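Protocol step 4 of 5: obtain the predicted structure for the target chain.
Materials: sequence only (see below). No template structures provided, no constraints applied. The aim of this step is simply to have a reference model before the mutagenesis design in step 5. Sequence pasted as it appears in the construct record:
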Amino acid sequence: MNENTTPLTDAVATTASDDAPHRVRAIINPATGEVIRTVADSTIVEVDEAVRAARAAFASGPWPRMPRSERARCLLRFADAIEAHTEALFQLETRNNGRPITETRAQLSRVPEWFRYNAGLLATQRDAVLPGDGPYLTYQRRSPLGVCGIITPFNHPLLILARSLSAALATGNTVVVKPSEMTPLTTLALVDILREAGLPEGVVRVVTGGREVGERLTGHPDIAKITLTGGTEAGRAAAVATAARFARVTAELGGKTPIVVFDDIDPRVAAEGAAFAAFVAAGQSCVAGSRFLVQRRVYDDFVEALSARATAIRIGDPVRPETQLGPLISDVQRDKVLRLITAGVEEGVRVAAGGGVPDLPAELASGYYVQPTVLADATMSMTVAREEIFGPVA
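Step 4 output (structure tokens):
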């Protein structure tokens, strides 16, 4: 195991009893294929314990009962604490999910803003008195739901967590978080930062692991709301599980984002924007510009310009500031993307750029890289035009 870890990586997801069986999961640096550290998957018993602790903190702890102004001050203190650790968080998240450090830094520098924004909303009285007929007073009052479950993805683990967590905490909820089993490290680090900054015991718990852990959390009778970012099937399963007890669910799922290019724009200018849309985060984003519908008069020029831009992208170690494209999250995802490219070729697409694995230095040879790829002459009946590839493929 790589011992070059920052203190932020030493957070522990769960506290297990000595006789509890655990499966230990290796957390991989996708740029090199090396193990960063290991994390024990939570057992079902530990998921129940985490929910029970969060429920107790909601029922009798200080957090939901704090005056709004005091809870707002706590959120501002959390924001300052996170900001003080941002450089270590940048490095840790880049090592864990492979996103280039320049992208990670731009994204995670916004995390404290979510806590400050929700602190501002909390400090502003937003309850309303509503007009009505007769001698009645109708008013709107905002109150916490209870224990909320937050399930986060591998591609933007800390930003998506902060967006939901800051809102849930501001309102007085307690929370159980399940990060992606591939990228739990910055979640564990963030919760440690919050605790050091004064977050009361039990208000936020983390459970680690895969599908079984997520299913138990979404189906747990004491979870009042689930917020999930992930694939379509995961969202459907969460909706069914929460519907059985009329719990609330907010799901941000996948897509196949189309971008339309008309002939009244310089195709070279369009290609610059298209390259960012298609290849940022190595295409591993639900809002990635994965397919382009181009007016015929500029089609050939656009394909040529986008292909040239894709070929010029600097692929490499994501911790280096000059790197523009990092690896995919896992060997499984890399192989899936390569299979989809092959399927596209078999169905008749033309590979205008990329299409394979880049030639990289020996220290990156075991990483999960795919070249920025442009597939031209696709039709809407083809697999590559219909399936979300979730890789650097336009």
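Step 4 remarks: Residues 176 and 205 are 5 Å apart (CA to CA). DSSP finds 13 helices and 13 strands in the chain.
Proceed to step 5.
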